[in-house]
């Protein structure tokens, strides 16, 4: 096992310290073999499979909880289609929390060389590392055969040396959801600058409400705010340079960005005790009217459009991009398609499993499913779709706000965790929680992250 994967094993234990109350998932079920060796073929090539004996594959997914019920229903429909098309196939669904899957379970399985046949995965840097270790199936011939290779908005996060090792399930942007009814009652308008956003936050706080809903038990949640702030203060291009050493975490503008997040914490713009709150808690802060604004990914719209989850707040929530430092400056927004599904390279050795994987891809990545994801779950398409076509897919006011947000983007960037190594992500996660907890100052926190970056960069040489 090469050095990069050995490093992952050590990261597992550090990352675990940042997670509280991690649940257990089911064990992988052994698969009946018995395939005829003469039926084996390369991925993407047609191979006739005569064996109809029962066999099983596992899909590790992260569609856990009420907020992901629509996405889970889509996956279940694709599973049924795939099982019906492949004789003898049974697909086992293994549900695991996203953070637990990414930072613990999948890393451990990859280090052991035994991932599930199909699994939820982030493209960059995760899939790239696993692919370089020979653990992920090369999908290039499969998507060529199915005629979908050029139909994605981007495959860059899943591409290594020109080969594709995973497929994004959807796209997303990050911005602020807000209580439109409250804004109207108080005579507030969508801010055009960061100063205006802070002025609104002060008025909300003075009214006895929480300006920004946030839950920081999982560090990636507050880091959405931090990442967008530093992309304004230091520029969206800064994150691309950390891995190469071209830019430094300790840059003075990075310090300013972290200091701004720290300032918002100190001013009481967030609920006290946010470090102990789960992701669902911050959505509830908006739904109950306790908080007025919330930084989150566009995917969160499904919660606010569902009467079972949002109740009377359905139709009363809007969306806007984080505004720039100065009015008229380009709007900079996190926009990517970095989360999707990967496939074990071991599948290539079994023609029946390979057939199942091809059928799964054929059923999952269609215009119909992309539109369904947009309509039912509010997930922006990962496959190419005209903005006007997207607008016609949903007349929901919140979705129209999100489409408007997409149209306003001047510069987009991928989330930081698509551009830095896992151990750097761990250091940054610890750092932002220390900032929120008042345990460290921005400059020192960034020194610690840069030290982790230096170590990671040296290990990659």
UniProtKB/TrEMBL annotation:
PROSITE patterns: PROKAR_LIPOPROTEIN. The keyword Transport applies. Residues 1-17 form the signal peptide. Residues 28-51 are annotated as: Disordered. Residues 28-38 have a biased composition (Polar residues). Keywords: Signal, Transport. Pfam families: SBP_bac_1. SUPFAM superfamilies: Periplasmic binding protein-like II. The keyword Isomerase does not apply. InterPro entries: Bact_solute-bd_prot1, SBP. Belongs to the bacterial solute-binding protein 1 family. PANTHER family: ARABINOSE-BINDING PROTEIN-RELATED, OSMOPROTECTIVE COMPOUNDS-BINDING PROTEIN GGTB. This is ABC transporter substrate-binding protein. It comes from Paenibacillus puldeungensis. The lineage of its organism: Bacteria, Bacillati, Bacillota, Bacilli, Bacillales.
